Amino acid sequence: MTIGTRATGPHPLGGTTVVPGALDAPVAGSVEPAADDFAAVLDHRPGRHWLLHSDGRRSPLPVGRWHGPPEPATRAIVARCAGPTLDVGCGPGRLTLALTRAGHTAVGVDVSAHAVRLTRRRGAVAIHRDVFAPLPGEGRWAHVLLMDGNIGIGGDPVALLARCRELIRRDGTVIVEVEPPGPGLWRGHARLATLAADGALRRGGAFRWARLDAVAAYDVAAAAGLVVPEVFRSGRRWFGEFAVPGRRGCGWPAASGGGTGRTSRAGTG
Ligand SMILES: C[S@@+](CC[C@H](N)C(=O)[O-])C[C@H]1O[C@@H](n2cnc3c(N)ncnc32)[C@H](O)[C@@H]1O
After folding, report:
1. Which domain holds residue 141?
2. How many distinct structural domains can be found in the chain?
3. Which of 144, 148, 180, 241 is most buried, most CB within 10 Å of its CB?
4. Which domain CATH number covers 71?
5. Does any domain span residue 11?
């Protein structure tokens, strides 16, 4: 949907803050997951891309990175993977490819047929599926990855992590890119906005989305039946490795009240 054409004057997404609701028209009708929610960025249409959140936040999307070669931060993820790995919401598949090149069995999963095509074109394996639909090898994956904000898929991180828990084997882990400590857990709607080279601003339909930071990760994990043995950083990016309680070295946290001990651990990470 085009919401404006830029001639001259301020940037259409300009200003340091976005007035909540100014860009995010009321969510009408269905906000069920659609295969083309990310179409503009998966097509790599020239322009700049943002994710507009219904709380007014706008996040520039690193679309060039998604379509490029695996960046240095992916090395830290690949190094943690020791067995068959499912890259959920693989997009154009650069991480699936990095894992494959490292000699792992890696499969990308994406609800977008185009993303799956792009991943396959790069030489990696991908299947066209919703993560909440039946998937091959359920309960047998060593790792499930949720990178690049993919913890937002479906708009409910507890439900998504609980689903990922079903996918991993007992000693498996879910590796999740999280936000630096601060914003906590946010759930709402998002839509994509693309500023095309001709100045037209196009905005997609709304879909459910969420954000999770390194502190709230502990309580969200617990609600999904997981623990977080480790939060780690690679450059400026933050990640959490989630595991099934009882996995070697992964008990439930000793202090279960309020999450203070757990969150301070992440906060000092
Ligand atoms: C933020 S992009 C992630 C980019 C990707 N990690 C990369 O490196 O290119 C989100 C991706 O998740 C996919 N996605 C959204 N909902 C999904 C679902 N329910 N199941 C599987 N994939 C989904 C989208 O199609 C999109 O490719």
Report:
1. 35-243
2. 1
3. 144
4. 3.40.50.150
5. no
Candidate from 36, 38, 74, 94 with most ligand 1 atoms within 8 A of CB, to mutate: 38
Distance 178 CA to ligand 1 centre (A): 15
In a domain, 6, yes or no: no
- Report yes or no on 219 lying in a domain: yes
User: Which regions of the chain does DSSP assign to beta strands (E)?
Assistant: 2-5, 47-53, 58-60, 85-88, 106-110, 125-128, 141-146, 168-178, 185-196, 200-203, 207-212, 227-234, 237-243
Using the mean position of ligand 1's atoms as its centre, give its distance from the Cα of residue 227 in Å: 24
Q: Give the number of the atom of ligand 1 that is nearest the alpha carbon of residue 154.
A: 19
Per-residue pLDDT of the chain (269 residues), as tens digits, is 222 222 222 323 332 222 233 333 333 334 345 567 787 778 776 678 999 999 999 999 988 888 888 888 889 999 999 999 999 999 999 999 999 999 999 999 999 999 999 999 999 999 999 999 999 999 999 999 999 999 999 999 999 999 999 999 999 999 999 999 999 999 999 999 988 888 888 899 999 999 999 999 999 999 999 999 999 999 999 999 999 998 765 555 433 333 323 333 433 32
Q: Report the distance separating Cα 155 and Cα 153, nearest Å.
A: 6
